[in-house]
């Protein structure tokens, strides 16, 4: 799943390639992907793209008509959604390859971009709304660790009194915007905290360490992804991960073996020596 560092670079790429350009056509191919009925995709034709920004793990493509009336295209990538850029956009609405074409935007200069989904369940979604907060998932977004509002005090206030396991809480978009399965594993490993620890059970020192690593891991990953083409972003992310999807590998910090814990239909990777006092979780 694209998380905030990768979504930020997708956002930067689209902003650089689309800002100021006029949409010629907009088509959403899979009906369930479009979560709003009015305005319709056809209503985007003739509108100028004025900005592209990141909202947690979503992107906001802002458009304006000739008198400045705004419409926002909010894209949530789900687990396997992505962006495919075309210097010359195809005229048809079919695309060969593993990913399913979910939506295609053609611009008046002939370029354009596709929204694709390579997953089994096709979870990418599109909202077209006058206000970004008209999208419930946007309105409920929690603290973004990459925002200027993030600090230890605000981080601690989100954790205060929460009995939820810390890995699940880090991934809860209403608590912290932009973190998914991969970076939650990386953050907890760097902070030397078990994924099963309840937020309310963390010491003051652990909260401070976790706040620092939450910001640092995401900020470093965002900087490392800067300038990487969308087609190469996922590979760059996976190559940089130290524990996530590294089951059986050697921990780069202590030399122990990375283990995997499966719970609630999800998997977490962790280092027993660094995070759980040498205990293998089950």
From TrEMBL:
SMART domains reported for this sequence: Fapy_DNA_glyco, H2TH
Q: Where is the FPG-type domain?
A: 242-276
Which named protein is this? Fpg/Nei family DNA glycosylase
| Catalyses which reaction(s) | Hydrolysis of DNA containing ring-opened 7-methylguanine residues, releasing 2,6-diamino-4-hydroxy-5-(N-methyl)formamidopyrimidine
Q: Which UniProt keywords are present, listed alphabetically?
A: DNA damage, DNA repair, DNA-binding, Glycosidase, Hydrolase, Lyase, Metal-binding, Multifunctional enzyme, Zinc, Zinc-finger
Q: Which domain of life is it from?
A: Bacteria
Q: Where is the Formamidopyrimidine-DNA glycosylase catalytic domain?
A: 2-122
Keyword check for Oxidoreductase, yes or no. no
Which family does this protein fall into? Belongs to the FPG family.
Q: What InterPro entries does this protein map onto?
A: FPG_cat, FPG_N, H2TH_FPG, Ribosomal_uS13-like_H2TH, Znf_DNA_glyclase/AP_lyase
């Amino acid at each position: 799943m694209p998380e905030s560092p990768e979504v930020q670079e997708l956002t930067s790429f689209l902003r650089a390639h689309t800002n100021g350009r006029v949409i010629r056509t907009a088509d959403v191919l899979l009906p369930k992907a479009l979560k709003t009925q009015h305005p319709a995709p056809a209503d985007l034709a003739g509108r100028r793209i004025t900005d592209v920004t990141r909202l947690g793990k979503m992107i906001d493509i802002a458009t304006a008509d000739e008198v400045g009336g705004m419409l926002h295209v909010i894209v949530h990538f789900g687990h396997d959604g992505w962006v495919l850029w075309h210097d010359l956009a195809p005229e048809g609405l079919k695309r060969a390859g593993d990913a399913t074409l979910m939506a295609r935007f053609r611009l008046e200069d002939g370029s354009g971009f596709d929204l694709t989904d390579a997953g089994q369940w096709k979870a990418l979604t599109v909202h077209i709304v006058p206000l970004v907060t008209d999208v419930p998932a946007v309105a409920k977004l929690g603290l973004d660790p990459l925002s200027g509002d993030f600090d230890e005090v605000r981080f601690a206030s989100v954790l205060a009194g929460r009995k939820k396991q810390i890995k699940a809480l880090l991934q809860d978009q209403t608590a912290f915007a932009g973190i998914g399965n991969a970076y939650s594993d990386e953050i907890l490993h760097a902070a030397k905290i078990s994924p099963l620890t309840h937020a309310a059970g963390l010491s003051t020192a652990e909260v401070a360490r976790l706040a620092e690593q939450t910001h640092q891991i995401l900020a470093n990953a965002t900087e490392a992804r800067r300038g990487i083409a969308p087609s190469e972003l996922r590979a760059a992310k996976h190559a940089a991960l130290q524990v996530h999807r590294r089951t059986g590998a050697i921990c780069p910090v202590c030399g122990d073996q990375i283990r995997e814990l499966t719970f609630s239909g999800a998997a977490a990777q962790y280092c027993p020596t660094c995070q759980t006092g040498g205990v293998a979780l089950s």
